[in-house]
Design brief:
By secondary structure, this protein is mostly helical. The protein contains 7 helices and no strands. Among the domains are: 81 residues, Cytochrome C biogenesis protein (Helicase, Ruva Protein, domain 3), CATH 1.10.8.640; 31 residues.
């Protein structure tokens, strides 16, 4: 018997090097778009303080930057006013700079901002009665979780496991009869 048709054999192809991936124009355009988008997003954070806000005195500007890093933008979540692009954060940065130019100390600027916006404006709020939950809440939750696990495992170790009792004589005879097929 002679076969006229030979089966096709799949040949192993080596993996394409990374350089070959960018030979496709669509892939190259996509990766270029992603890279430029990430670069733009990262650069926008550093441009939060606008050139018009910068003080002429470099020492005073350094103080303004340091003080601004301690205040939370009330519009954004957990972002300092120095890093935020929000209009209210800009107003707060200008207010800090105005207070510093007027001769206020860092503590006086901080007290002024707290009196105007409340303790919420501070990125590191003080420890007082109104912030106890904020400071001790996570510790309390973790402690309750550990206590719950401890009680659960302690009760599990102390509980008596239900052990099946042996078969009675009557049950044993009935089982033997069932196994022999005598019922």
């Amino acid at each position: 018997m002679k076969f006229t048709h030979s089966p096709s054999i799949a040949r192993w192809a080596p993996p394409r090097p990374a350089v070959m991936v960018f030979s496709n124009k669509k892939a190259k355009a996509f990766f270029t778009f992603v890279a430029l988008s990430l670069l733009t997003l990262c650069a926008s954070q550093s441009l939060a303080v606008e050139p018009g806000e910068v003080l002429n005195d470099p020492v005073l500007e350094a103080r303004a930057r340091e003080v601004s890093k301690g205040f939370r933008c009330v519009v954004c979540q957990n972002q300092s006013i120095d890093d935020s692009n929000a209009a209210l954060a800009r107003d707060m940065r200008v207010l800090v700079r105005e207070r510093l130019v007027a001769g206020d100390s860092n503590a006086e600027v901080s007290n002024y901002m707290v009196s105007r916006y409340g303790d919420y404006v501070l990125l590191k709020p003080p420890l007082n009665k109104s912030t106890y939950v904020l400071w001790f809440g996570p510790l309390l939750i973790i402690g309750l979780g550990i206590l719950t696990l401890f009680i659960f495992y302690r009760r599990r170790q102390n509980s008596t496991a239900v052990t099946p009792e042996g078969l009675s004589d009557e049950e044993r005879h009935r089982l033997e009869a069932l196994l022999k097929g005598e019922e």
